[in-house]
Design a protein that fits this description.
- By secondary structure, the protein is α/β, with parallel strands linked by helices.
- It has one domain (3-76, 115-222): 3-Layer(aba) Sandwich (Rossmann fold), CATH 3.40.50.850.
- 34% of the residues lie in helices and 21% in strands.
- The longest helix has 16 residues, at 191-206.
- 45% of the residues are buried.
- The mean pLDDT is 97.
- It binds dicarbonimidic diamide.
- The site of dicarbonimidic diamide has 7 residues, from helix 7.
Length: 223
């Protein structure tokens, strides 16, 4: 473990790797895989899967350097007692949360489509947080896990940039965590939202955090 400086915007940031966790947000089959729920809605999943290789490289380096790696999956209990009506009752009734999709019930825990893609699958012992909301802190153990591990900084990757990544970064920022977002490790079905989402994080002297790319993090950690 070491203290490293990462090239980032709006400015470089120095972190202790021992106090930094990598958080992989919702890299789930239904969002990323051809034939999944995301694609069935007419989305181009290639816009999301471009993040897989950079995430793989980052995960590998983080693991080799003993950093804490945490994964999240958006999803609800099979009885949907944790799914607000306001979240469920939108869009075409046949493709709502809980309905049968191409890879099982949509966004229901334990269904094949709700699981993490094989390329980024958690290793034994890495925390996997099933979250009912967009943000990873809402109704989960995330904060307790971070506190137990004395974590101060988060490297936040995943999908979608403007959805669950952004909500998590905002929640983390309000709780005092420094968030570093490698843009190439994130993705959105709407490229404009990806770009603007990243700009919003680093605007106003880093109002929500720092934006960088995977190579800058790998270079900082490995040299
Ligand atoms: C994620 C969503 N993961 N937008 N979900 O961003 O519903």
């Amino acid at each position: 473990m070491s203290t490293v400086e990462i090239n980032a915007e709006p400015e470089a940031i120095t972190i202790e790797t021992a106090k930094t966790a990598v958080v992989m947000i919702d890299m789930q089959r239904d969002f990323l895989e051809p034939g999944g729920f995301g694609e069935s809605l007419g989305n181009d999943v290639a816009l999301l899967s471009a993040a897989i290789e950079p995430c793989k490289a980052l995960l590998s380096t983080a693991r080799q350097n003993g950093m804490l790696v945490i994964h999240t999956r958006e999803g609800h209990l099979p009885d949907m007692s944790d799914a607000h009506k306001a979240k469920v009752e939108r869009g075409d009734p046949s493709v709502r949360i809980g309905q049968m999709g191409p890879m099982g019930r949509i966004l229901i825990r334990g269904e094949p489509g709700q699981d993490i893609i094989p390329d980024l699958y958690p290793l034994a012992g890495e925390p996997v947080i099933d979250k009912p909301g967009k943000g990873a802190f809402y109704a989960t153990d995330l904060q307790a896990i971070l506190q137990e591990n004395a974590i101060e900084n988060l490297i936040v990757c995943g999908v979608t940039t403007e959805g669950c990544v952004h909500t998590t970064v905002r929640e983390a920022n309000d709780r005092g965590y420094r968030c570093i977002v490698p843009g190439d490790c994130c993705g959105s079905y709407i490229p404009e939202f990806h770009e603007v989402g990243l700009r919003m994080i680093k605007a106003q002297s880093g109002i929500f955090g720092w934006v960088t790319d995977s190579q800058s993090i790998l270079t900082a950690i490995t040299t």
